[in-house]
Amino acid sequence: MFEQTFKNLDDILHKDAGCSSELDYTEQTSWMLFLKYLDDLEYQRSQEAEMMGDDYSYIIDKAHRWSEWAAPKDKDGNFDHNEAMTGSDLMEYVDGELFPYLKGFKRRAASPNTIDYKIGEIFGEIKNKIQSGYSLRDCLEKVDELRFQSQEEKHELSHLYETKIKNMGNAGRNGGEYYTPRPLIRAMIDVVHPKTGETIYDGAAGSAGFLCEAYDYLRQGGAAKKKLSTSDLTTLQESTFYAKEKKSLAYVIAIMNMILHGIEAPNVLHTNTLTESLKDIQPSHQHDVILANPPFGGKERKEVQQNFPIKTGETAFLFLQHFIKMLKPGGRAAIVIKNTFLSNTDNAAIALRKELLENCNLHTVLDCPAKTFLGAGVKTVVLFFTKGEATKNVWFYQLDPGRSLGKTNPLNDNDLKEFVTLQKAFGDSEKSWSLAVDNLDANTWDLSVKNPNVDDEVKLRAPSEIIEEIIALDKESEGILASIRGLL
Question: Could you tell me which residue ranges the DNA methylase adenine-specific domain spans (predicted)?
Answer without folding.
Answer: 153-452
